[in-house]
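Hi W.,

Here's what went into the run:
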Amino acid sequence: MRSIWLRRIVRYPVVVALFAITVKPARAQQATITGRVTSAGTNVPLGDSRVMVAGTNIIAAANAEGQYTLRNVPPGAVIVRVLRVGYLEGRRAVTVEAGRTTTLDFSLDRAVVQLQEIVTTATGQQARSELGNAVSTLGDVGARVETTPIANLGDLLVAKSPGVVVLPGAMTGSAPVIRIRGLGSLATNGSGVTNNPIYVVDGVRVNTGTLSLSTGGTTASLINDFDPNEIEDVEIVKGPSAATLYGTDAANGVIVITTKKGRAGTTRWSWYGEAGGVSDRNKYPTTYASWGHDATGAVTRCTLVTESQGTCTLDSLTSYNVLMNPSTTPNRLGNRQAYGMNASGGSEQVRFFVAGNWQNELGPIHMPSFARRTLDSMGTALRDEWVNPEAFQSYGARANLSASFTPKFDLNANAGFSETNQRLPQTDNNTYSFIYSALNNPGFNHNGLNYNEVGTLNEYRNGYGGFSPAQIFQVSHMNGTQRFIGSMDATWRPISWMQNDGTIGLDLADNNYSAICRYSECPNSGTQRLGSVTATQTNLRNFSAKLVSSSTWQARSNLNFRTTVGADYSNLERDQVTATGQNLPPGAQTVGDAATKTNVNDSLPTVNKTLGVYLQEQGSFRDRLFLIVAARSDQNSSFGTKFQRVFYPKASISWIISDESFFPRPDWLNQFRLRSAYGASGVQPGGAVALQTFGATTANIASVAGTATSADTPGLVAQALGNPDLKPERSTETEAGFEMTVLNSRAHFDFTYYSKRTHDALVSQPIAASSGASQLTVLKNLSSVANTGVEVEFNTAILDRRALGWDVTIAASHNSNKIVALGNDASGKPLPTIGTGTSRDSVGLSVNGFFARPFSYSDANGDGIITPDEVTVGSSFVYAGYSLPRDIVSVTNGIDLLAHRLRITVLTDYKGGYSLYNQSGQFYSQQFATWYSRNLKTTSLYDQARTVANSGAKNPSTAMGYLENGQYWKLREVSAALTLPAVVSQRIRARDAQLVFSARNLHTWTNYTGIDPESNYSTGDVQTDFSTTAPRTYFLIRANLHY
Amino acid sequence: MMRLIQTSRGRAAALIAIAGVCLGACNAKQELLAPQQPGVISPGSVTSPTAADALYAGALSRWKSSMNGGGGNTEALWNWEALFTDELRSADTFSQRNDADQRNLQTNDGVLTPIYRAAQQARGRARDAINALLAYDPSALGKQHVGEMYAVMGYIEMAMSGVFCNGIPFGETVNGVPQYTKPLTNADGSKLAIVHLDSALSYLTATDAGTLNIKYLVLVARARAQVDLGDFAGAATTVASVPTNFQYNFTYSQTTFDNEWWIMGPSVKRYTAGDSVDIAGQIVNAIPFAKLGDPRVSVTDTKSKSEDNTTNFLLVNNWGRDDPIPVASGIDARLIEAEASLQANDIAGLMTILNGLRESAQTIGIFKIGVMADLPTPPDPATARSVFFREKALWQFERGYRMDDLRRLVRQYQLPQDQVFPSGNFTRNGSPSGQFGTQVAFPVVDDERSNPFFSGCLDTKA
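Here's what came out:
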């Protein structure tokens, strides 16, 4: 039997080779180290401290009493390290004997600068100092969430990390956009390729895509299913140099989320309650009416141009602002409540963390009272979904169990469930958009000059141009998601030098979306009021499995090796059924009730499966020089049939050079570390894009050719052309940097330079329509994109006194992005540009760069009005800048008062180095004579000129004037967290209690002339501001009770 | 090493190592990465007579949507032609519709681009169907379908050559590889159309009703191409056998997509009927379709606002939600004969044909037109020309004729464009917005520049 085993094993030379690397002679008996970790001076136990034997897999977490136990420690001299957020690292050498227990206590000095020293990598937890790449960690997320205004993951991530551009969702619960270290992919529709990072929660690849809920642009996101209160830590793996082992979809970064885990000890309860207001504090533009008369004396609407041309004589000017007038605006103060609890405890053998949360947020958009009265007068009973069309509600529960069955075997089971329900109003690029109707105001609010205050339903429109909010908000868009994310991971340490981890996990999301106009409801347009309903059910299923085996070898007393071999598998599945019905009987609201089922579409189920294996070797010399080399190979179901597997290498070096004897140690320098890393990763194409496909279509064709009698007939049409050579994008990145801690650990400085090159970038190579091809693009690996940049982080404690503290954190980054090549066109010539619109990809310029024709102007007659003949528009498009911010800066000031019982935090952030397309200004100035730049003589000549250059009076015209500098500063977060005196907390029997007053998105400083530089409804790479609101302002009060 | 593996711990390590890497070593692609895509219709499924017929049905649907819209806001060639000419006015705030209305289109226009694509791709789907039918369906019906698909190709080439600038490439895709061609002048495009229409005729040898209908469609389309080439007499000969009551219709249903004229008109009020006046006053050269009260163009003044909230909505009643609309008809054939008479300076013959149509009740799709009084005989050729093109505009309202006719008035009848196309002051959403433009053809869109042989219109003349 044994010989058969051996024969089987030696058939696999790879296995044998790996085995030879990982195996070392087993020792008969191991040692144990135990002890307690406390805070120096106060002797307060430091639970959650991570204690590890340097150069091994042996790691333990201290319990709530600060106790820890390290088992299976190889006998001999070892170095034990202790790491905890907020404290300086503890490190002690000790010699342990086989079969004996050694006691080793640690007393850690409080660090002025708060750094997270343990990070989660693809191969497990690791000390940050061992890594050659930069990893951004948010640190103590629990404290952040408790003391700052954080409602969702987007809030948590915005303005926290250099190189990470976060554009928050504009409306309650809407989708944020996150981009890391520039754009590497020329992502195009249908390619399945995006520049989104991937997300891993407790080792499980999770879905974070957008949902069907779309009301003209603004949409919902699965990202908002995560409750920040349950998160222990968030780590941002920024690029291929760090993300190699996460596999073939990680080139645009990985956001690793770790949920809270149980701690051994007395059960600790935490309760929180949060309430506050949600408002839209943006300024919306006023509309104007220039009342005048023509040569015949007939009353007509003037514009600046017709006044200047003499065809209209101005008599008077009126104005109105639907969105700022209290009697007409749908903006009011919304509200938010959130409540939750969690409990953590258990024994050393079994630990638990359980949590529950509920939140309800009503955004500021509501049906104005005049519109409610309109419906009342029509005898229509109001529905809450109409009165409050912007709403987000969720609840969730989590149970994380950790068990140590034996000293050699641990098991963690993590399970989280959430349900979210959401509504969004009609907005953005949509004729039913309330903003569109409001900005369609004629410049006054009464009958006259082509405006009738009574609409086609005899409803009072009160200044709204298209439809009244009474009907607009009857269009109900509702979305619900039930979500389960669960994982189980087991750790088995059969021998002291080996640790084996296995993880399996599921992310199941069941999303239901419905858009309903019941009979005799909604705007009187088309067939809406006959009743219509769209129902979409989307199922998303992710399955992840991972096996990792790490073995350590102490080759010399100061030389350690760790070999890791791993394999992981992910299966991302999605299917969707959409049905649409029209002509509903009164009261009906399902597709089944509809007289006409116009569209039943069970869209293509897609799967995307990845199987990867990897090997990593890490060496550490004297616990100060760390070298890592690794390689990963992936197979993926979406690769072309002619492409089988991809290889990604990785290498990194980290050197705490300040520990070397030769390194000068001035008094002010505490630690200096050099690091560098190189790695490759990829972005996989969408599930079916490599394949040539046909699609089914129903055709209504005549029973006898050409006659008027017809029937619906099943049809087929060619669809995708396919590409059997399709492979993943491949990004390689080199980064280098240093970290230094200075001034008695009162300041920390971190600098990183990165250079990322995306090869084989997937490009939708355009195909000219004259070919008659079924698809006018074909996805090919043609392009090359370069991103370089620098990232800087600086943390310092300016004051750290008993009564007063002041710390500052500054994070900044700069990115340069350039398309190096776009491949060749059909004739074999290099393709210089893809795209014909305002946003294009052009060699030598940034991805999705803005382009427009230039214009010039001169007020030749000096009348203060720019007319078409005074504007010249160039014939060729020219580059007009980046579409993604290149420069981001965030500055966080933390001030501790009242002996550190009151902490005030102020976060301000900046984005710049890019252009923003003010599509609202472009559209409304072109289409409506009511726009300020067509009426107000106080409008600057430039503003008038850009309007004229963009008008129908010019051909060619140009939107160049509305490609504006997007830079801004935003007062992002302000919070005051007051820890109540013990006498107060004791009265409610709490260990401690906190009251937090906080606010988000308080003010913006910008020259951008749109609503707000964060107005956006796109979830793609180019920010889209068209009839769009901006992120809401929150004023919150929160109570945190800890028992 | 062997001793090591034989130890229990060594075995454990070996097992784990095996587990870690065997997923990659054990032919796992087939086992763990399959099925590739469960929902895909692959080429292997399209190798039967039924599949070929399904491709035929799909191609017909694409042709229909490429000419008269694909439902919703998916406009197509006929719709855009109507805006560009005097048939309709834009009544919403879409800048592209207003640009089309103003004859002021950009070469990267966001609506014209998909219109151009749809027409060219519909050609491609017809070619796909021809290839599949010839390979898999040798039946008589299959033969008829091949003829109809060639008719589709020829019709599209004729229609595009009638309205786009000189310089339209017509290529193909073979085995997924684009075969680009040089741009053709409008005349050469018409000649290409005739080649494909003649190919159609070679397959339409049966005498059943369906085959005859397709054949008449082909003859009318071929004659239109001949007219575009100036071969008026030949065109008249081509359509001589087409009966006046013939119609080849596009048909609609709510479960596929509706007639685009109904969608953009009464449904969402983005198009309003053309008239000779608007808020800014007189529109030069425009037939007052709305005020004319002609039974062939039924218009109701709704006294309400259009989608743009400022333009008075003039409702065209010709087409209901899913009413059929003729691509070609016997009336069209007679009008081709009438123009031959006009060209021959045979005013009496011209009026005989025009009045002949008026003297009988006619049906366009299912839109009924009663008997109309005869027109007086025009006193001179110029008046006869005006009468003819006015009659033609009314008979062929919203059926993809008017823009080609206006271009021909410039090209073949030597009239200045500003005496043919709508001209003068232009209003956009109820407000003055400069003048009508001077364009007389749709530009071939920038999108086509992916074709290495194309670098823009050869010229933009009529």
